[in-house]
Structure formats: structure tokens, C-alpha cells
Amino acid sequence: xNAALDTAEVKVPEYxxxxxxxxxxxxxxxxxxxxxxxxxFLDSGASAQKPDVVIERMNQAYRGEYANVHRGAYSLSQxxxxxxxxxxxxxxxxxxxxxxxxxxxxxxxxxxxNLVSHSYGRxxxxxxxxxxxxHMEHHANIVPWQLLRDETGIVIxxxxxxxxxxxxxxxxxxxxxxxxxxxxVTQVSNVLGTVVPIKEVIDLAHAAGAKVLIDGAQGxxxxxxxxxxxxxxxxxxxxxxxxxxxxxxVLYGKIDILNAMSPYQGGGDMIENVTFEKTTYRDAxxxxxxxxxxxxEAVGLSAAIDYVNSVGLDxxxxxxxxLLAYATERLRGLDGLTIYGQAENKAAIVSFTLEGVHPxxxxxxxxxxxxxxxxxxxxxxxxxxxxxxAAMARASxxxxxxxxxxxxxxxxxxxxxEIFG
Length: 421
Ligand SMILES: *Cc1c(COP(=O)(O)O)cnc(C)c1O
Known about the structure:
It is a single chain. This protein has 421 residues and is of the alpha/beta class. The chain is built from 15 helices and 17 strands. It has two domains: 20-43 and 312-419, Aspartate Aminotransferase, domain 1 (Alpha-Beta Complex); 63-309, 3-Layer(aba) Sandwich (Aspartate Aminotransferase, domain 2). Helix 2 (52-64) packs antiparallel against helix 11 and helix 3 (75-94) packs across helix 11. It is globular, with a radius of gyration of 22 Å. It starts with 19 loop residues before the first helix and ends with a helix. The relative contact order is 0.16. It binds pyridoxal-5'-phosphate.
């Protein structure tokens, strides 16, 4: 093996105390200037920035460790395959899966949920069967079920939320019944920040004989996840929100469930034997990874997980909670500003409107001061309808967010208010 293949020089920092300045220094995008102002990046809920170790590790993999995986007998292909499979092991440990085979790489969380709707749906869901989602779901956890409903005649039930965004557990209990086959809910709302008590959701579903899929796109970013302790059946997340590259997502599934699910996409790498008459399929994870997978993205995700582990998800959560409290207090001080989502247990996401100003105008004007927030329906139109509005602005924080970001947001919002009189 030559020197270019040696990965030892990419180091991950060790933090004894939470040093947000040191963390920020690891993210090159955070030193950008936008319109002459230092960037205040408050859109990590849409996609997080990447630390140098991820960028460098991917660069290294493309330069010296790249070939297709699972195919070649030659060293370079073997190295690429090792990297890819080591990434699978890394993810399995990160979520505490029992076995690496329970980790399927997909394109993103959307693809993971679509995989479940097709493969679990084909194998287990028939006309009249019920699935339960919540009013806070991202479109990625609504539309695949509607497509399945149109095909098969399943019934979709929706757990309501209260005015501050709490998941209504009593209503959920009432909806569970002998026809419930699957519960598919988000762990954390990408709009309201609500942390859904998923352990209770899972236990209740199991008691009713149903399986559970959790959309962990926001959940896994803000606190540690242990799929065995949760006893969750299927858990999906996306790499780019976890400081990794775009183009890779993960579906965790209990191995018995995965192997009982029908194949999703057909093609290379997922088959045992093919003739024109009959094809047999491999077990998970290969069964669900048709075609060339996200090879270098897996390497990048692996580096992102090392980085997150080095900082510690518990530490990240503590830092973000302190910042959320600060942001909430400062934003509450602004006349005409309404915050949506004040659940008892909430992640570092603040969605809001400003009286008399369209959220898109907020987004555009504060961008002129270097502040990046998302404005729109946040892929959650039913949730917007729940509050009777078409759009919100959203500030979402990450491990590298700091008070300066929040102060810049508040200053920029005061500037918006000046403009609109
Ligand atoms: C971002 C997000 C998604 C979609 O993620 P993709 O990476 O675009 O597939 C789904 N659900 C939630 C809760 C999200 O925040």
C-alpha cells in the first residue's frame, strides 16, 4: 500500500471543554463574508456546514483510494471496498446497531423512507391497513405514504399537535388499533423543533402489534441515538445534516425485518443469481443497494461521525440548548415577532414570523447583513396550514453556532423592522 493511501494524517480534534471558537475554526465556510458581513449561518437544519476533516478525507479518497467497490480483485478496489464497509461499521456503532448488516446506505433520508414505503409496503401493507404519521412530518414522510395509499388502499392517520407543537400522546393512543401496521413519525420537527417522545411512541406501537419507522433527519443531529435501547424497527437519517456530505443517507432496520422486505430497486450488486426466468436476491444490506453506491460520500460520512464523536453529541446538545434559550429570549424581545413551537422538549430550531413582513422578504433583507435563515413552508405544508399561514422564517442552530450569530440575526431583524416602518 503506498503513502497516498495512508489516512493517518487526517486528525480529529479532541475537546476537553466545549470550545465553540475552536470548533468554528474547523469549518471553513464559517469564515466567509456575505455582502461585506461575516456570515451568520443559521440554516443548519436545511444542511450543515462541513468540517475540514470531512472535506480533506473525501479529497484524499478521490485522489488515492478510488475505484468501484465490491467488484475488483485489485488492491485499489479492495481499499475502496474496505473504506466503504468500514463506514458501514462506523454508522452501526454510532447508532448502536446489533450488526453492520442492519445499515443500508441510500441517497438521503427521503430515499430511505421511499425505500421503506416500497419494500415494507409491498411485503406487509394491504388495503385497509393503517399507518400513523404526525401533523409535523416533513413532506418526505407524508408523500411516499400517499403514493402507497393510492396504489394499495392503505389508510393514513395523522396524530394532531397542540398550539405550542406538542405531540398529542392521548390522541395517538386512540388512533392505535388492531389495523395499525406501521407508525412513521419524526423524532424532531424540522419546523417547530419539537422533540417527540419516540420511546413512548415505539413502546405503544409495539403493544398494539405495529412496527415503527422514525425519521431521524433532525433527531440524530441534536442528541445520541441508540436503536437497540429504543427498540425501533426502522430508523432513517441523512448525512448532510450530520456535518457529512450530501448524497448519502442511512436506513437502519432490524435484520429480520429487512430480510423480510421485498427488494426496492433492481440492478447490480443486489442479486444472488440472475437468469431471464428467475432472479434471487441477496440479504440486507446488499439487497437494498442496487448499483454503484455513494462510495466517497460514505467515507465522508464516516469522517463526520468521527468528528461528531470527538466533540460528543451530549456536549453538542448542551451547547445548543443554551443557545436556543438565548435566541428565544432575544427574539421574544422584538415587537411583532411570533415564535412557532414552544414544546416542552425542543431542539435548537426557532421558526417565526414578523408582523407585516413576508418571510421571504425577511430572508432576503437579512441576507444583506450576512444572516442566512430559511424562509418558506419548510417542506411541511400541512403544518403551515395547522397555523393558518403559508410560510415562516427559521433559524436553526448547530454545534458551531454562537451568540454572535444570534445577535447578528436580531440586529438584522431590527433593520427589517426599520425598512418596513
Ligand atoms: C431535511 C429533512 C428531511 C429530508 O432530508 P433529505 O436529506 O432532503 O432527504 C426529512 N425529514 C426531516 C425531518 C428533515 O429535517
